[in-house]
Fold this protein.
Amino acid sequence: MPRRTDLKKILIIGSGPIIISQACEFDYSGTQACKALKEEGYEVILINSNPATIMTDPETADRTYVEPITPEAVAKIIEKERPDAILPTLGGQTGLNTAVGVAKLGVLEKYGVELIGASLEVIHKAEDREKFRDAMEKIGLRVPRSGFARSMADVHRVADAIGFPIIVRPSFTLGGTGGGVAYNREDLADIAKQGLDASLIGEIMLEESVLGWKEYELEVMRDRADNVVIICSIENFDAMGVHTGDSITVAPAQTLTDVEYQVLRNASIAIMREIGVETGGSNVQFAVNPANGEMVVVEMNPRVSRSSALASKATGFPIAKIAAKLAVGYTLDEIPNDITRETMASFEPTIDYVVTKIPRWTFEKFPETEDLLTTSMKSVGETMAIGRTFKESLQKAVRSLEIGRFGLLQQLPPDIESAEEFLIPRLTTPNSQRLFYIATAIQCGMPIEDIARYTYIDPWFLHHLKEIVDAENAFRVLSPSAEALREAKALGFADRYLAQIWNKTETEIRDLRAKAKVAPVYKLVDTCAAEFEAFTPYYYSTYETEDESRPSDRKKVVILGGGPNRIGQGIEFDYCCVHASFALREEGYESIMVNSNPETVSTDYDTSDKLYFEPLTLEDVLHIVRTEKPVGVIVQFGGQTPLNLARGLAEAGVPILGTSSEAIDRAEDRERFGDIVRRLKLNQPDNDTVTDVEAALQAAERIGYPVLVRPSYVLGGRAMEIVYDAATLRQYMERALLISPEHPILIDKFLEEAVELDVDAVSDGKDTVIGGIMEHIEEAGIHSGDSACVLPPFSFSEELLQTIETQTRMLARELGVVGLMNIQYAVKDGVLYCLEVNPRASRTVPFVSKAIGVPLAKLATKVMLGKSLRELGFTKKIVPKHIAVKESVFPFNRFPNADIILGPEMKSTGEVMGIDRSFGIAFAKSQMAAGFDLPRAGTVFISVHDIHKEKMVPIARDLREMGFRLLATRGTAAYLKAAGIPSEAICKVSEGRPHVVDFIKNGDIHLVINTGIGRRSSLDAYHIRRGALTYNIPYTTTIAGARAVSEAIAALRKEQWQVCPLQEYYKEQGSGFRVQGPGIKKGKAAGSRRQATGKDKKKPQAASSKQQGKGKKPRA
């Protein structure tokens, strides 16, 4: 069928901030959809609240609304833009739920807007557990026995009928939010309550347990003509009971017979037809009983999902792009495959390699939470590796995780009496380290049959792990001969791990391989197992003979990506890498991307001229560099990952573009940076570097408490703490030296009640231009990645801002920065302090770029290629007329027992942006986008530390004058009363009933203000904050945050907030600055003229080269 000509304007709903279970994959899918629809000539309107995405670049859609993804905001956009259709299937669960909410408001019917991609009926049939169960029974497929509950009375009735253990699955949620496994009535009461709260419709399904069954997923696409294709089969390494997002997964499925696969395939097709999905991709999950082959349907997602991104990258099949085209009327047999250019999308992909995905967890950020994997997802990212065998791809995936591991064996504690007694509980209970405990159990002689019984993992996988362990044992008694090296590399062993086995250095192993001519070749990912020629160079390495890489003789640049998402290094860095690729293309260079993250736009097959899906290790990058021979490598965009490789690459003779690795070291090395500060006569908090406990105590005594302590060379404030006394410092040092004995500990004077600022700038080696100065809303002590911030700053004099600009230029010149740089300053008592300098991309670059309308990372790339800022037309700081607020989003609801108070160690997974013409509304929008619905009236609970009481008074007075009822703990209430502010005293949890948490549970509190100091807060304060989180009540944990919330509430009470696209803000700003976009093709829509595209234009001449439910934020 031809594409629809009755549609002219289409609204795409994005997925919002990066949260656990909804990450970068929806930037990838949304960007693909925008490009696909613009190619077809449609006008594309986009709503997404996440500034760190390519899809929110003003060139990606025609009108870009960086607004909260709520039914209210979408309704305002529909009223303003009058789209013909909404495409909600590319924005994850957020997109679907928002579309359902908009429909309930009657907005779609009022304005004649059609849902495409999935109808309301389809969404409800797939997402409503009861309707889905009925649909499966209708086509003769079994689902686990289940019942539905909308109250705790229903819960107990259904549980009595099904028995324990029992699975709790909330309707209309993502990533298993609010779900879990209940083994007894006490478990059930806790999990069911969470599930009912988390569900969009207040419903949970209680389901018969299939724990221990094997889990499979099929990625399926169907069109209006009933063509159905299976894109990819995926098998979970872990059995049922571990959320698929937390399981190691393998594609294609390894342990199915052909007959079993056909059963799943036929079932998937029948499900697509019954549910009614006819214009896009879906993910169908099955459980199979390993004892008798019985199959049950677990669930299906009528949208592009996390698994869609994995399947897309695993096969090369652009699922999101095809889904968008199906939604506007095309059929699969009408859409060509970009990779082969011969086959159509109706040609099922075939792969002749094995893909392994391993999740990336950050339990170390939440030490109060047990490392335990269940049906509620906890991983913050993932990595993917491709190899010719499962063993090779698994070992490549392990070293891609970037957790300091290059092999499978786990070092056991030296003081254990029995290895078996130590290992069995770690095998029976799924955890983030279980893969390594399994390998160690094999090494200790535990039989495969026993391990299979403890873990429910298929023996096929365990036998392959045993072969890796056995091979390692064999290599230990062999010399590193050419034959041994060849066999080890074919099994996926890393040079660094072989160096440990053979007691050599990594460089020595690399030299031995070179001498023996043991080097990888590169194979194409082509969707068709080499049956047709591939035109999109997308490669993986393996140790065979035939090399399919096709190095050109063009000038080329390698971009090193950021690897798997983690707290501290996320989508912001991938954004910068993608912009580097766009800039290289515009400047006539061949762009080569290296990354291992399947969720990202950077690993899309058409983002760069070439893609190497490889681990970001020195070994793997050097192989690519020697194959491609680029003029240089960009390391300053992918976060800490490529920076850690910079020195090794430079020592191997690889040219680093932009700021030198020497300059990076000068900025990161404490003593060398101190020399720079003294030379430039700048202020810096008093500090010291120590390597033992006594030296730390002496340094802190000299500097004066409180002090900020942290290990050197970390990202995301890892293990950073504010310490107020010697006893706490002693405990910290003992713990830190045990974890990281090779790194010195940095001690700084902590500037209490200072205000921090972040500055992003671009330098060409001569001129430095400020991109943006951001004022932190939280006071000092909150990690910059967790702090809300505002641009432009609003509480500093023009004189101070000029001083900041001057010092930024001085530092850029001193370090010889070429490209991006970020500087963190603090202001205390009118004195400006320089805290740290990062001569690389920071996580705020996308936010600043969106706020000012200038793509800083793209400019920085062109600067690295030899262009000057004057040539590029960027010569002065742009101060926007609007206000932009960046807010962080947190995963606390995923981590039981974690305290939600913020500190110097970063804990946020993502960010949102609020933008408006006033601070109050901009901040309010940022809170809505982060999942907070700020109250306009009601009751506010206040409990603040003694040192904050005086500052709380004016805020409490403002809230009282707005008509809020004030409740407070006794000490706070007494202080407010003395200041003439009426409030009611209520009990802390430790003081009797009814206490504050009772009020929270009863819905009698609408905003919580609760502050503390130091890392450890009282148990009472913990219960208050945890209660607010559990019951989805807005809360703030700092005075500055409370002040901003008060101002936002006042603004919301005063005026109706409106929506506005970025393009209009930039037009009002009138900067006139634009950098050529990525060149998205625009086709012929009904009644529209064909427009010139990036591909229609003559390529520029190459420049000469001189050389990386929603978590709620404690408002801080």
User: Anything to note?
Assistant: Residues 258-275 form the longest helix (18 residues). Residues 1075-1116 have pLDDT under 50 and may be disordered.
